[in-house]
Amino acid sequence: MTIKSFKHLFIIVMYLSVLVIVDNAVAASVKDSKSNNASKETFAKAEALFYGKGVKKDYKSAFKLYQTSAASGNPDAQAMVALSYLTGLGTHINYKLASEFAKKAADNNSLLGKFALAMIIGMDKQIVVLDMDKLKTLILPIAPKILSEAEKGGILFQTFIGQIYLLGIGVPKSEENFLKWSMKAAEQGEVIAQTNIGSYYQGKAKFVDSKMRKPLPPGHDIGPVEYIQIVPESEYTEALKWYKGASDQGYPQAQFLIANVYNLINSYNLIAHMGSEGISAPQPPRKFQAEYKWLLNEAAEQGFVGAMLSLGLCYEYGLDCPQNTSDAVEWYHKCTEQGLNSTNVFVVSCQQRLDAQPKK
């Protein structure tokens, strides 16, 4: 072979190599495109199931599709997986996985992911205690974008901007705007917004001062105080209406809050019934016994720690169920093993109950 022929052969080989490289690149691009399209289609199906758009709402099926889309790298799907783990919608509550997926989504520039992460970090896994400094740092940069998405009709963004208005982060604090945006989402069946509205109205309930002659029986968690503030059952009507809208869709926090209201109503009835004889007087029958136990059990089985504590107290003191110390201890243990911060109010209470058990 002459040098000239060798050069021609070399050029042909190089040309063919380039063709192969280009062909592989095109094939990979087509594959990625198909994968992205499949991920978007899966995400769209998940959204339809999550919100009940054109199909029956199904959180469990939506969660599975969100997982599939998230595995393909869809940031908003990753955010929805995080929210599902955080709220217990479609899956068992798992705070560790909620944090992991929220961080992944936020790192991939998902606005949903950034808000979810902000709430997780801002709560510091406390559930009921918000760290306002942390929340401000994380939410201030994204509040305008959340408002923009809410104005475009994003249901979860309407819920989120309602929460932001109630907290007054990045926007003037406004109960009116909280209700405006929360109502928009709640009327479309969004359970977090419904529960937020219920909590708002529960907080507006009018208290009645009552003189305590003696402490209430164990398990009511009011304690030995001379005066307490109690709320008549009629004051909970609006709160219960919104809680039930979310509870009927399987939202564990709403289920727990309804059970909590039922316990408060029974405490009120007991106090209102107490005469000069104090707690030795015949006690009125507890209302909502079956519903109370069922709601707590549903929420606890989904991993909501407040319900685990309450269910443990039910078994420990025999409230609306047979007294059973071993069942109480089991629920206290489950609460402490949920992966929450050890200073979480529910975890602290459960640990205190465990510490108070007789040593074997």
Q: Tell me the major beta sheet.
A: 2 strands, antiparallel
Helix content: 55-70%
Q: Can you tell me the CATH topology of the largest domain?
A: Serine Threonine Protein Phosphatase 5, Tetratricopeptide repeat
Q: What amount of the residues lies in strands?
A: under 5%
Number of helices: 16
Summing up helix and strand content along with how strands pair, one would put the structural category as mainly alpha
- Low-confidence spans: 6-16, 18-22, 26-32, 212-216, 221-227
Taking all residues together, what is the mean pLDDT?
82
Distance between the termini: 93 Å
Name the CATH superfamily classification of the largest domain.
Tetratricopeptide repeat domain
Task: Supply the CATH class of the largest domain.
Answer: Mainly Alpha
Number of strands: 2
CATH architecture of the largest domain: Alpha Horseshoe
Instruction: Kindly report the spatial arrangement of strands forming the biggest sheet.
Output: 1-2
Outline type:
globular
Written as H for each helix and E for each strand, in order along the chain, the element string is: HHHHHHHHHHEEHHHHHH
| Rg of Cα set | 27 Å
Question: How many discrete structural domains?
Answer: 2
